[in-house]
Amino acid sequence: MSVGIDEISFYTSNYYLDLRTLAEVQNTDTEKYYQGIGQEKMGMAAPDEDIVTMAANAALPLVERVGSDSISTLMFATETGIDQSKAAGVYVHRLLNLRDNCRVVEMKQACYSATAAIQMACALVARQPDSKVLVIASDIARYDLDSPGEATQGCGAVALLITANPRLVEIHPEVGNYTEDVMDFWRPNYRSTALVDGKYSTKIYLKSLKRAWENFREASSLAFSDFSYFCYHLPFSRMAQKAHQQLAKLNKSGLSLEQLEQQIEDTLIYNRIIGNSYTASMYIGLTSLLENCRQNLAGRRIGFFSYGSGCVAEFFSGTVVAGYENWLHRDAHRQMLDARKEVDYDEYLQLYRYPDPRDGESCEIERGTTGRFRLAAISHHKREYTVC
Q: Does the annotation mark 79 as catalytic?
């Protein structure tokens, strides 16, 4: 019996800032962003959007197809938590009208936790093959204005349905892990934006890739040459290119830079115009590969490298299932991306600085999202969500 990803859908805000605009305001060369970090646009959440509304919007197409009563477990991965106690997934549970005996839990370990959720979901399905587990990763990446990380901001959510005999990607059980206590990126409870040591984080990312791959080779007979494509965690697109070149060099692949680029380029298309979505980024990258690759991916093996700062990393593999192209949400995703509204710099600042109540005061929130779900108000410390 195979276990893996039966369906996948993602969502991002209807607002974006073109990094050309940011470059003009900062009086810097646009290529610093377009080529230097490989990013073109950053998604900006509307005032009435958060990780809950984005998650529900991402998952809605999956739940509408299989029925809300068929989901046995909802696992919510995020590093943009909205409550120290209550899982964000419980709000999503209500918005999607899931059954009342559906298990719900939130997971956190920087950008890695979606992978942990998927591996645990696969284990649950292997134990109960008739079950369907909904995994959602949802995040809003925010950094201080005028900081090195500002251009890598973004937002997005991805929903994956994990089942037996999946129709998209079979996930294989062999994994390679690496964990180390480091301070390359973190966000204390008293801050709304993250702290990051960019150069050190890149160094740790690459070190973790090497160590996770070495551990994977101990658990699996697969070699670098057995993989046709690779999906990497995407804080920015250039990071994946650096990582893939290192992995190829480590394995003495003999492939040219052009050949190596072909193994990852289709995974970067959506990320370039959405920006960093933390836990969701690698799986939006997978969606991008499945929906944009002109080659038939059936039977092709994909290598996945998931990294979460602080740090936990994992390398694992999956094989694309024949007929996968019949179960994608390609048209809906492209329509969503094409319908987004570009904001100017002043509008960007308004979105960035929109009040985020932290003292429990009553707050009605203006309508901005075009999504199905929105955060309508915060009253007496309670978040109030509505269906549009």
A: yes
